[in-house]
Design brief:
5 helices; 9 strands; alpha/beta; 220 residues; Rossmann fold; 7-stranded mixed sheet
């Protein structure tokens, strides 16, 4: 794809997919258009980089679609002084977008090969305000820090409170909760030490995080 076609594809992604999903924050739109999404997908999927779909990455994982990324980034309401925690580094593209919206991103993934590839891509784009960590964060991530935003980029079959206490007061937690075919994007805000408010943002779908807790069901 030529440079001109890439620019047009990025423009179309923003105008035809992201804006119609009520993503209007100019900083978010600028970052999504500016960050070269095509450099964060496998070579054989490069022609689909700007498509309105979840792209497979291996290990049964997928990359968020552009409109999912836009809505979650907008709801996080990050500013340049804030700290974000991302659960599910994946391709590293959304990590890059978050890093351009805030002061620092800690990003966790269970797959070391994803982290290795993401590190190379982030370095190539000169994005250095990111710390990558390997681990299973499906039930939460307690590194002793509090974050202004926590974004979980894989599905949770059931809502749990493993991430709630990682937020600062005023911090925002973005989750996609439920079972296929329809799941719910949620914004949870910590309004006090032991108080949280919840807002439903959109209906969507994502495969669940590996090892995400699920109440055992019995068939009779």
């Amino acid at each position: 794809m030529s440079d001109m076609n890439l620019e047009q594809a990025r423009f179309n992604m923003v105008e035809q997919q992201i804006r119609p999903w009520e993503v209007l924050d100019p900083r978010v739109l600028q970052v999504l258009e500016y960050t070269p999404r095509e450099r964060f997908v496998p070579d054989h999927l490069r022609n689909l980089a700007f498509s309105d779909m979840n792209l497979p990455m291996g290990h049964g994982e997928v990359m968020l679609s552009p409109k999912q990324e836009g809505r979650m980034a907008q709801a996080a309401e990050l500013d340049e002084s804030e700290q974000a925690l991302e659960i599910g580094t994946g391709s590293g593209y959304f990590t890059a977008c978050l890093a351009r919206l805030c002061g620092h991103v800690t990003s966790v993934d269970i797959h070391q090969d994803f982290l290795d590839t993401a590190a190379e891509r982030l370095e190539r784009e000169a994005i250095r305000n990111v710390t990558l960590k390997q681990g299973d964060a499906a039930r939460g991530w307690d590194d002793g820090k509090r974050y202004d935003a926590v974004v979980v980029t894989g599905g949770l079959p059931e809502l749990h409170q493993g991430f709630h206490h990682s937020l600062t007061v005023g911090g925002r937690l973005l989750l996609i909760v439920g079972e296929a075919p329809i799941m719910e994007g949620l914004l949870i805000t910590r309004v006090g030490e032991d108080q949280w408010s919840t807002e439903s943002l959109f209906d969507t779908w994502l495969p669940p995080l590996i090892n995400a807790p699920r109440t055992r069901r019995f068939d009779f």
